[in-house]
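re: that chain from earlier
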Amino acid sequence: MHYSILDFNAVLKHSYYAATNGEKIFCEETGRSYPTWKAAAEAFLTRYFNYIIEQSNPRYIIACHDQGHKFRSEIFPEYKLNRKDKKYSPVESKELNQFKGWLKGFLASVGATQIGFPDVEADDIIAWIVKNTTNDTRSVFTVDADLLQLCEYEGTVVYLKLEAHFGEGEYKGIPYKFTSFAKSMLGDTSDNYPGIKGFGPKKFEHLLTTYGEDGIKEFEQVCSKGNNSQIVQLIDLHPQDKTFHLFLDKHKEWNDMYRIAILHPELCENPLVKPIIHKRVPDAAKFSSLLTSANCEDMLEGYKGLLNDKQLLLDANNFESYKDEIYAALKDSSDVAFDYETTDKTKIESFRQASNSKNFVDVLSQELTGASFCFGKYFEYTVYIPVDHKDTANCDKQVIKDILEFCQSRKINLIAHNAFFEGVV
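^ sequence. v structure.
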C-alpha cells in the first residue's frame, strides 16, 4: 500500500501563495494583491492532487493537522511566538480561511483520512505514521525541511515544495539524517528557537568534514544523553577543537534545543490522548460540487474514472448480467462494507411488549431479507441484493454467501455495519 501524507497547513499555504491563475484581489490596507481561494484550489489540484492520484488511491491520503505545540513551548516558551505577531491582510485571511474549508471538504469527498492529536504538531504525527507503516511505501508532502530526516525510513519520499528527497541525500549541505541535530545547533528562525549562540554553519561543516558522518552520529548520541563526562572525554581526545568546548559550556542550552528540534512520534502514543479523526466514504456528488464551486468543473472529465457512483438494485432478473462486473470490482477492492436487512417472523409477543418495538431486537429470531454492499477501488459501487422481499424477484441467499466467501478467500477486509448483529444473523 502507498500512503500520501500531507502536512496540511504547509500544503494549504504553499498552494495558496503559489497560485498564479485568475485575478488577484487588491487590499487597500496593505497595498498588495492576493490570490483568491479558488485560484488556490486550482493550484492544489494541479500541483498536488493530480500527482498524488498518479501514485495511489486518494483514499490513502492522510492529512495531518497541527493541534498545538504544548510540548515544545514548555521547553522553550518563545517557541513559534513569532507567528502570533504576524499580521495577515483581511483579504488574505478571508481567502485562506475559505480555501481551508474547501480543502477539508475536498479531502473528505475523496475518502482521505484527516487526523490530529490534541496539543501535538503535524510533524510529530507524520513521524508517528511513517514509523508505524514500515511495511508500506509513503510520500510526505510538506514545505518543512525538518521532515527530511524521515528519508531514513525505507520506502519514504519527502516532497519539499514538491521536490523529491529520499535515501542518503543532503539538503543545503546537511545530510538528511542530521537535520534535527544541525537545527538544534543552528536554530530555526521560522520556529523561533535560536540554537547555540556562537555555533554557525561553518562549525557544522567543520564537524562534518573533520569527523565524517560516523563521527557526527557518535557525537549526537553522546550529547543527547546529557552526559557531560563523555563530552569531557571528547575534549581530552581533541583538545584543540574549540567546538567541543562550546558544547560543554552550552550543554544545557543545547539539550533543550535538541529536544525541540527532533521529531517526537511518541506524543501520539499516549493512551490517555485520543486522536481526532475525520474520514468519510468517497462522495462523487460532493466531489463534483466542490470542483464546480472552485470554478474547476473543466477538470471533472479528467477525474471521470476516479469517483463514479454506481448504485444498483440487483435481483434474480438482472444479477447474472451484472455478475462479472460486480466480481471484477470486488477484485479491485481492498475493503468491502456490508449490512444485512432482516425481519422477525416469529414475533414473540412477550419480547415485543417488553421492548415496545423500539429498544430491543430479538437478534436470534431475525431472518435475512437482503444485504447491501459498498465496494470498488474508490467505494464507487453500492448494491442491494434482496433474498426474501414480498413481490420481488429475490436472489437466492447463496448469492450473498458467495460474495462474502469470495472476499474472505482473497483476504479483502470485510466491514460489517454492526458486527455483532451481522455475526449472529
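The first strand starts at residue 2 and ends at 7.
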